[in-house]
């Protein structure tokens, strides 16, 4: 397991333990259990402690303490990033986040007179084998309010340069946003201040509201 990925993966075996009479386990089943287990074993605390530790090492200055969770039912793979302002610090973006795991990283500003503004893309499946890209973005300006924006599109969508357009959408948002697309769902939030927590959850449609 990578040093900045936290929690045991939620697999078919765990679903069978919880629902022994279930015979045909689907991605949606694994996603629902992953969401149910979002804080199990203290993995959310481990992710938070890790990124707060990075911040302490980094010191003063604008930064985003980023924590992202996979409840899609399958492994998510890092696809790409786009930095408008700033860069990741010390620990890389997690290359793979298995279902039921948190990833954590610190994104910092480039200078004293600019903020942290960036986007990341993770690739996975929508529950029916269709390749999808989850895009999560945040903005902490040097002056002004913080922003969070997310969207989901078909796999490889962000290999085309949409970044000026996305930046405009990001900067028009407040501190929470979500998106539903082709059976997928994502939600992002960011706190106030110069070094807030940014939290992104990538999952399937209906998982976060299922009974």
Automatic annotation (TrEMBL):
InterPro entries: Jasmonate-induced_protein, Nakanori
Species: Ziziphus jujuba var. spinosa
Name of a matching Pfam family: Nakanori
Protein name: 23 kDa jasmonate-induced protein-like
């Amino acid at each position: 397991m990578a040093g900045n990925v936290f929690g045991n993966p939620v697999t078919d075996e765990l679903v069978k333990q919880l629902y022994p009479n279930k015979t045909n386990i689907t991605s949606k089943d694994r996603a629902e259990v992953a969401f149910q287990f979002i804080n199990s074993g203290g993995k959310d605390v481990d992710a938070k402690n890790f990124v707060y530790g990075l911040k302490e090492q980094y010191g003063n200055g604008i930064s985003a303490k980023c924590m992202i969770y996979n409840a899609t039912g399958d492994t998510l793979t890092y696809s790409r990033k786009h930095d408008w302002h700033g860069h990741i610090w010390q620990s890389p973006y997690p290359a793979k986040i298995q279902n039921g795991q948190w990833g954590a990283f610190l994104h910092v500003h480039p200078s004293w007179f600019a903020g942290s503004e960036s986007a990341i893309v993770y690739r996975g499946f929508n529950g029916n084998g269709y390749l999808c890209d989850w895009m999560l973005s945040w903005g902490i300006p040097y002056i002004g309010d913080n922003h969070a924006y997310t969207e989901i599109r078909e796999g490889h969508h962000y290999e085309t340069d949409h970044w000026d357009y996305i930046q405009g959408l990001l900067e028009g948002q407040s501190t929470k946003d979500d998106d539903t697309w082709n059976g997928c769902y994502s939600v992002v939030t960011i706190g106030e201040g110069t070094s807030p927590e940014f939290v992104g959850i990538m999952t399937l449609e209906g998982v976060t509201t299922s009974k």
